[in-house]
């Protein structure tokens, strides 16, 4: 399977959207209520290639490279959670979207949840796919920092492969040469090498602590919420997933087996069916 295979037969466009002076890479497809996919730390929109076509049958899908990531602009300032949220809302404004369904994985889930708590009028529903942001674990933070730096600073794609393999339950099957090549090209951009520290600022204990999703902030989320967790996530525990779901009023908790930190990518058929059923329930 390749990204092009995933998107075969689908009408879509990839463009750069001006978000307050920041060129923002965006893939758009389908029609219907707007749905925005948000990736994880040092990720990019291509990670949702296995989900876009199924969702585009019912929604206008927006998959974006977040602030400082992928082929989106990389201003030289720390990328804190409020900065990501400001960029996300600016993207919605630039596209003329008042309210959107948000589906965020890892860092993307953290950003989406913060947006839902602080700007409830902009979020129609919230889907959190192995989200980060409720705890600060030094060993995980160090792994993210060191593996990302090794991949970005090394011209050999082996570091990029190791960075992605760490996230998967079955790396031999899930980590394709194409996925490695796409991310390695992103990592080799001069702007990425210069600003990777701004991406990794959330792995600094003081900064991370100031940006955590607290129980109080989670309790302010009003949007219908789906929390998707896995049993083989190297970054977190099942207890953390239940904390998310228990802290958000009315949230639904679902487990996806045989997946690591990318449940939507490793188990796309299971995730797509589950997610679309949830989204349809929010439209009733």
List the helices and strands and how they pair.
Elements: H1 3-6, E1 12-19, E2 22-29, E3 34-38, H2 49-56, E4 60-64, H3 81-94, E5 100-105, H4 107-118, E6 123-129, H5 138-153, H6 158-165, H7 171-174, H8 177-187, H9 190-199, H10 205-211, H11 215-218, E7 225-230, H12 238-247, E8 252-256, H13 263-266, H14 268-282
Parallel strand pairs: 3-4, 3-5, 5-6, 6-7, 7-8
Antiparallel strand pairs: 1-2, 2-4
Helix pairs in contact: 2-14, 3-4, 5-6
In words, what does this structure look like?
By secondary structure, this protein is an alpha/beta fold. It has a single domain (3-134, 214-282), classed as Rossmann fold. The protein is 45% helix and 18% strand. It contains 14 helices and eight strands. Strands 1-2-4-3-5-6-7-8 form an eight-stranded mixed sheet, with helices on both faces. A hairpin with a 2-residue loop joins strand 1 and strand 2. Helix 2 (49-56) packs parallel to helix 14 (268-282), helix 3 (81-94) packs across helix 4 (107-118) and helix 5 packs antiparallel against helix 6 (158-165). The longest helix is centred in the middle third of the chain and has 16 residues, at 138-153. It is globular and about 50 Å long. The model has no long low-confidence stretch (mean pLDDT 97).
């Amino acid at each position: 399977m390749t990204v092009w295979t995933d998107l075969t037969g689908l009408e879509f466009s990839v463009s750069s959207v001006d978000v307050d002076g920041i060129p923002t890479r965006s893939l758009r497809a389908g029609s219907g209520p707007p749905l925005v996919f948000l990736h994880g730390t040092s990720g990019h929109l291509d990670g949702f290639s296995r989900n876009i076509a199924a969702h585009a049958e019912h929604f206008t899908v927006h998959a974006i490279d977040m602030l400082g990531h992928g082929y989106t602009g990389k201003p030289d300032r720390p990328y804190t959670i409020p900065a990501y949220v400001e960029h996300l809302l600016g993207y919605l404004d630039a596209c003329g979207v008042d309210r959107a369904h948000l589906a965020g994985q890892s860092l993307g889930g953290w950003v989406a949840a913060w947006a839902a708590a602080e700007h409830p009028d902009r979020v129609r529903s919230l889907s959190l796919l192995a989200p980060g942001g409720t705890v600060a674990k030094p060993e995980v933070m160090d792994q993210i920092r060191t593996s990302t730096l090794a991949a970005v600073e090394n011209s050999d794609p082996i570091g990029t492969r190791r960075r992605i393999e760490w996230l998967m339950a079955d790396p031999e099957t899930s980590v394709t040469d194409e996925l490695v090549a796409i991310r390695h090209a992103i990592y080799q951009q001069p702007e990425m090498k210069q600003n990777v520290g701004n991406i990794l600022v959330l792995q600094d204990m003081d900064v991370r602590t100031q940006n955590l999703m607290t129980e109080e902030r989670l309790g302010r989320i009003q949007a219908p919420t789906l929390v998707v967790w896995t049993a083989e996530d190297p970054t977190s525990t099942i207890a953390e997933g239940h904390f998310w779901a228990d802290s958000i009023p009315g949230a639904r908790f679902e487990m996806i087996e045989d997946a690591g930190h990318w449940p939507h990518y490793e188990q796309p058929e299971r995730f797509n069916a589950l997610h679309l059923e949830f989204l349809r329930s929010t439209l009733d």
